[in-house]
User: Fold these one by one.
Assistant:
Number 1:
Amino acid sequence: MALDAKGTAQEVADLIAPVLEDMGFELVDVEYVSKHGRWVLRLFIDREGGITVDDCAGVSGEIGDVLDVRDIIDHEYVLEVSSPGINRPLKKKKDFQGAAGRKVKLRTIHPREGRRNYEGVLERVEGDMITLLVDGAEVSFSIEEVEKANLVYDF
């Protein structure tokens, strides 16, 4: 059964997250995209104290071997491993909890009253619900409703 890009990214994430955890890393995100006719699998990893170039190289070698053995992707692709950087995505409940009190930008999967994009201060996380203060009003979302979310830095 052929998977779409999103399904492939999820299958890769499910396979490698425990391996990365055993290596002392957290899997922050996986992207599987086609750019200029070639497929790119991007892994964003983190750990306490940050990520070095050597960490990325070590993870690339280890995870590349795991992916080759499991043969999830049956064509050529480029494996990229990096830190999530300053625009770290917020995906899991603990990511949102860590961003409480900070400015975030998010996009919902489905429009709410014709709107999908929101920017405001993340007020709180209760259960699977997050609440933003947007233009002076509180707006709540379930984490499952969020397609993409990132911290916003004002320089």
Note: The chain has a mean pLDDT of 90.
Number 2:
Amino acid sequence: MPTYLLEVSYSVEGTKGLLKEGGSSRRETITKMIEHLGGKVEAFYYTFGEDDCYVITELPDETAAAAVSLNVGASGAASITTKVLIAPEVIDAASKTDIGYRAPGK
């Protein structure tokens, strides 16, 4: 199953909701959402800085990842950036794949 990093930033309204419900309640809600889609939450952390929360999750496919991104963004409570995480073994296989590329001027 593909693994994704979700970088979440709460809006003012989302932060108010977080203050009301608490951090572990939001983790529970997100975990249920991911499991509903057939996925699994590997890690869930709050952070200081530009982003407020990082979630590492496995999801069945791009459609599920896009559904999370669209619905979280549409809620207005948070913005989300989704990144695909690539295992070292995938990079090993990619490094051995001939793609027929020629650099400019060579």
Note: The helical segments are 12-21, 23-36, 62-75, 88-95.
Number 3:
Amino acid sequence: MDEKEAELIKRCQQGDQTAMREIFEQHHRRVYRIAYGVVRRREDALDVVQEVFIKLFRSLKGFKGKSTLSTYLYRLTLNAAIDHCRRSKKTPGVSLEATGDIRAVEAEEGRPDQLAARKELEAIMKWAIDQLPREQRSALLLREIEELSYAEIAETMGCSIGTVMSRLHYGRKRLLELLKDHLKGEGNR
């Protein structure tokens, strides 16, 4: 943890509302993306974001700085989103639409046939990702979309780096299996 982050946390621990607002402004977009990637509904993701920041600000008094604030926050987010799905009896999944890394098809320029092909590919990817076990989906979301390091993912998911590597390996392998027929079709076009 760097000095600036440590000072910000210290100010929050002392009840400084401005520091709390700064933390929220720095992290709320990524928290929303992770939450939405799991719960897949805007309203539910916003509920998770609210729950996460309430938990964060309540727990900061005991925050020892053993991990970075962002890693701690992303772990809170992942756990809160999964808990939200359990309470709602919904199956969590990863939505590429909410990541901010994949633009909406309507916003892209191109011929109508290209737009249709992109939209079809996005639907197939969403379907394939939804077929993965939750741990593999979460690991892929944190690595490929949020671009966290293996160590950050391990800390966020509460597992070893080896487990993260395994989840990513088997998740990617399963995605390739699910997508192989579609990928073969692309080569024939």
Note: The two ends are 50 Å apart (CA to CA).
